[in-house]
Amino acid sequence: MEPQNTNMNGEATLLFTHAKTLRLHTGNLVSRSRLKKKCPSSPSEELQDCIQATLSDWLASAKLPSEEFPDTLDCSIPQETDAIPPEEREELKVSVKLFLCEPVQSSISDAVEMACQTLGVSQLDSVIIAPPGPVEGDSQTLANLQPAWEELTALVRNQQIAAIGTSDLDKDLLEQLYNWADVKPSSNQVNLASCCVMPPDLTAFAKEFDIQLLTHNDPKELISAATFQKAVQEGTQRAIAADWRLEWVLRYSIIVKSRGIIKAKGYLVSAGKASP
User: Residue ranges of the NADP-dependent oxidoreductase domain (predicted)?
Assistant: First the structure.
């Protein structure tokens, strides 16, 4: 191994050993040349590749702090920023899907705040929530969804989000959420891998209450704990021994309204150090 890599490994070990929180921004996947060399077969593979490449690029230029080690590592590539110039904001739509990996208090607010800061906007046009799955053997219930929806509702009232939606709800659960919620879901994503045709009862309910039905191909678990840990280790040349607990993953798309094309797409990731 070359000396500079050995040095980078040492610096990475020190930085990651002292840190308690990891925040990562992949930058615009539409323009990142390193990621164009590989065509991921799934959203999970794309995210794993993004985490590994971003950490590798960030650590190549990371320097040890002259004073205290930071508690939070902000891993991003400055030249890959997706900040929207104010004069272009009205022409663009910012759509987000937020995958909650565990029910961390205020994780939704943290993710939305980080997205707004990263993209240079005061409001996200739409946020679709993918909450943690229920305990194995149980089914998703309204009680599982309510805490996340209450947090989203507060963000709508604070004008940080314009519209909120759900993912993978059947007609009965979508109806329960709609009847209970003060701020109604504007959309619901359906995974066509598990149902080739939109269920007629879901279609009828959505049409009656003006809920947009969208399709997606995201797996139930976007990235497993083991796969995330592997991506971190490979991105830091296996310098990191500590375990990291993935808290949330946010995927954003910046769309040109008049043409319907994606100008930018990327991921924001947050993880905390697992308790010993």
Answer: 86-215
Res 1: pLDDT: 34
User: What is the DSSP secondary-structure string of 209-221?
Assistant: TT-EEEEE---SS
Number of domains present in the structure of the chain:
1
Helix (H, G, I), strand (E, B) or coil at 254: strand
Q: What is the extent of the structural domain holding 70?
A: 31-81+90-134+142-273
Has residue 192 been placed in a domain? Answer: yes
Two tokens at 218?
A: 């995201």
List the structure tokens of 74.
């902000």
Asked whether residue 217 is assigned to any structural domain, the reply reads yes
Reference 264, options 108, 121, 57, 163; nearest CA is: 121
Whole-number pLDDT of residue 173: 95
What global pTM score does this model have? Answer: 0.90
Under DSSP, the state recorded for 127 is E
Alpha helices in the chain, H assignment, sequence order: 3-18, 33-36, 43-61, 107-119, 142-157, 171-180, 200-208, 225-235
Q: Quick check: is 246 in a domain?
A: yes
Q: Are 162 and 123 in contact (CB under 8 A)?
A: yes
